[in-house]
Structure formats: structure tokens, C-alpha cells
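Re: the 623-residue chain
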Amino acid sequence: MGRGCFMFWVVGLLFLALMEGSSSTLSPSGINYEVVALMAIKNDLNDPYNVLDNWDINSVDPCSWAMVTCYSDGYVSALGLPSLSLSGTLSPGIGNLSNLQAVLMQNNAISGPIPAAIGKLEKLQTLDLSRNKFNGAIPSSLGNIKNLKYLRLNNNHLTGPVPESLSKVEGLNLVDLSFNNLSGSLPKISARAFKIIGNTLNCGQNSGSNCSVVYSEPLSFSPDGVRESGTKTHNVAIAFGTSFSAAFVIIMLIGSLVWWRYRHNQQIFFDVTDQYDPEVCLGHLRRYTFKELRTATDHFNSKNILGSGGFGIVYKGCINDGTLVAVKRLKDYNAVGGEIQFQTEVEMISLAVHRNLLRLLGFCMSENERLLVYPYMPNGSVASRLRDHVRGRPILDWSRRKRIALGTARGLVYLHEQCDPKIIHRDVKAANILLDEDFEAIVGDFGLAKLLDHRDSHVTTAVRGTVGHIAPEYLSTGQSSEKTDVFGFGILLLELITGQKALDFGRAAKQKGVMLDWVKKLHQDGKLNLMVDKNLKSNFDKVELEEMVQVALLCTQFNPSHRPKMSEILRMLEGDGLAEKWEASQKVDTPRYRAFENPPQRYSDFIEESSLVVEEMELSGPR
């Protein structure tokens, strides 16, 4: 822990001791105030699928509750309730969760007013109440949240004006108020992206009655600073009059100001130097100095390398407070794709919070370096653990492999169906599924993730990934969608079943084996036992094997429209609906694949017809 952070902590404890006589959230009667606040939220919501069942008023620790994230000190830091079919209202009790940094309740049917008490959440950085049925005015108290970065209230039934108080919040990255019933004049709000389409606001004389997207100054630009600079320029002009030398000075000042603004408009983040305060945060993230991470990794010692990928090398590190971390040092960050990779992971992926997704802890930016900091995963990747044994038994027995499949599916369901915009991973494979201390599956490496708006069916990009895991349509057309990830998940299931790599190149020129083709042939011949990882011996359930193979084959159908959604796959893995889905798939006549005159019959044919050559890279060991 840094010295400044430690002093703040000590002062905070002394303050609490003086004011409350306690350094915890417990009242004298032993009631946890955060538990009371969360229960108030639960009681005002209608929860048709009982996702909040384990929220218990008798508990003194809400950190184990579903959809609740806590700091290491036990205080609630995030409330994530997106896409859960919740209705009812949002309790003002939320204002008592004073340490909240994120509230994610999008894609529900919650109605009533937005509680003004949210304005008491001084640490709040992300508030997403979009795509609900909230009505009434936007509370002016939101202007009190000085740390707010992301505000999404779009697609509700909000009325009245946009509060003038929001213009006082500096450092906003995104404000989306589109598709409400807002009216009146529009205050000047400093946000890098400000969306207000679908309202009747007065945005100016030439804007018409239906405002479109407004882009304000970027995060690194201070409106007050520019107004001040402009005032100074004006005063200089008066002082110097119309003389040639004065005109020259004014031109130079204006030119410098324009250049300063241009340079700052190019930057999405401030540069972080060795002198930069590491306690300054962006979103939920800590900003580290390069010196701090260099020390943590023993000067990026090769002995600390956990693995490498297309965008950089991952090192094991130990930061000042003794926490073990994985530090990804990006290579060629300013080349094509490198900076995009960094912005994607830092700005957007940090908002995806789920127990089965790898959490981004922080980042570092300096003039020549871009680094990302993640929790250290002590059990490495699924790919590395599939080959490991303890006392002659595989570390990943059949039971653990089933849990890995379920955990990965839950993480992908969140990315595809509970994030807005949805996130496509694009490189789902055993090497990118990490294992925590309890062997819980953690979907990692969002280096190839692609953000996709729910209204779009697919995106077309340069093909990236690992041969053997890449969906046929992505190989042939460059088009990826969530069904691309479904294909990768199907291959992951086969990796869990067989313990083998998806694609092996032999030493002889024609010695090439594609696991998917091999599994299909064994399934057709009724020889499932031959595909099971020999390390498991006979320690697996034959019925569960048959079911998992069927799910894998449904996921890896060549036509992406025939593949199920991840939410359907999760239900099938949990024992619901597989028989019907499998039976239906056997009745479908496979149409011609539109990208080919003579559609390939084997996955290996797609590889041969693609000009793509991608070297397989896997991360080994813990990371």
C-alpha cells in the first residue's frame, strides 16, 4: 500500500473511531448498514427468477451475495443487476451504500422515479439504468457525484429538463440520455460523448427539435482552463492594441492554444509518468506508475513470464502491498491495433463485472509503455492444467471439467446478453480460460474482444484468433458475431472432453489432425469412449459425456444461424432442453453454405481454403 493511501486509511479509521466508535459498518446492535440498504433494494424489486434469493437480512457479510461485489476491506463496491427481468422500483436505500463505485441495472423493467438519494454516492463512477421504465425527472442531485464517469439513462420514460447541475461534473466519459421524453434547454455538459437523440430538447437554433449525438470536449480537456486561457488572450489583445508586435504575440498565443487543444483532443487518457499519483483512478481502475510495475516484476525478468500472446507478454508481479498480480506488457502499442487494444480493455472491458470474467485491476500509461494489471490466477489456464497430474490423477477430473464448462458459459452469457453494447470475445479457447484458487473458470484475455451494438448482427474485421478455434464464417468472410464465440465454446468443450489441442501439426507435411472432424466421425460411429481423455480412465459419466458432445456439436455447426445462443447452451448444460434441441438439429437439412459453391464437409476444408495462417499460441502456467 502506498504511503499516501496508508495515511488516508489511518485518518479514515481515526475519524470513524471518533464519530461512530467503530471502524466497521456494524451499528451498536450488530446490524450491518449495507445489509439493510441492500435488503431495502431487494424488497422494492420484483424478482421473478429469484436471483436475489441469497440476500439475507440476518447476514453480516453481503460480499458473498449474488450480484454484489466488494472491496478487499468488505465494503460493497458494485451492484450488478443487468438483464434479470426485474421490475418494481429502485429504493432510496441505495444512497446508504456509500462506497459504491458502480451501479449496473440496465435491461430490466424497473419503473418509478430515479431516487435522488443516488446523489449521495460520492464515489460512484458508473451509473447504468438504461433500458428500463424509469419516469419523472432526472434528479439534480446527480450533479453532486463528482467522480461520475459513465451515466446511461437512455431508453426510459424520463421527463423534464436535463439538470443544470450535470454541467458541474468534470471528467465525464459518456452521458447517454437518448430516447426519453426530456424537454427544455440543454445545459453545457462536458462529456467526451453526449447522446440525446430521441428527445424534444432545445439544443440550439440550428439543431431542430430532435437532438442527435453531441460530442463535447475529451476527458483530458478542461473547459474552465480553456475559458481562462481565452480570457487571458483577450486581455493581451487589449493591452497591446493593434501594433504589429502585439498582433504577432496574439497569433502565437492563439496558435499555441489551438495546438494545445489539438494535442489534447488526440489523447483519451493522461500520460502516466513515474511521478504520477498512482492513487488517481479511472472507472474502477487504479493507475500504476511504470516504475511501480517494473519493480513488481523484477524489471520484467524473464523468469516471471507467465505466457505470451499476440499483443504482449504477461508477467507475474508483486505490488507494494504484497498482492500478486499478472501484468500484461503490450508490444507495439502504437502500431495498428495496439492502441485500439489498450483502449478497448481499459475503457469498456473494465465495465464488464462478473464472477466468471477476468477483472481488470488497473493500468499504466507512460510515453513509451502501455500495461494492464489483472489478478494473478494461481491455477493457470485450462490448457496448461489439462496435462497436469497429482499423485497419478489428473488435476482436472470430470467434475471440475463440467464446472469449467458451466462457468465459462455463464461468463459468455454475460458478455453476449447482459452487456450493452454486447461484447464478442473472438478467441474462446482453453488457453484463455483461467482458473482461480478454487478452480472456478474465469474468461480472460479480452485482447480480441469486439464491441457490438445490439442492433447490429455482425461486424467485419481482420481475422484474428487461433486456427482450430475460429468459426468457418469468420475464416471465410471476416464476419464475427456472438455465434463466433459459440463455435469457440464448442471447441472448448471438446478440449475438456479429449484433453487434446484443437489442431495439431505433425512433422510430416500432410500429417495434420483437426479435432472437430475426428470427434464428428467418432460420434457418427458411436465410439464416444475413444475420444475421452485417457487420463480420466473410466472416471466419467457416460450420460453426461453424450450430452456434452451433443452440446459441442450443436455449437460447432457450420451455419452460424443453426448454433444456439449462449443462454440456451447454459440451460442445456444445466439439463434443460438439450434433447429437443438435438432432435430438431437432426431434422434440419443443411443448406448450401453461401460463401462456397461447393460447401466444405469438414472443418479442415475451411482451413485449407482460407489464406489465413495463425500460429497457435498458448499461455502456460499460472497468470
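Residues 1-30 form one domain.
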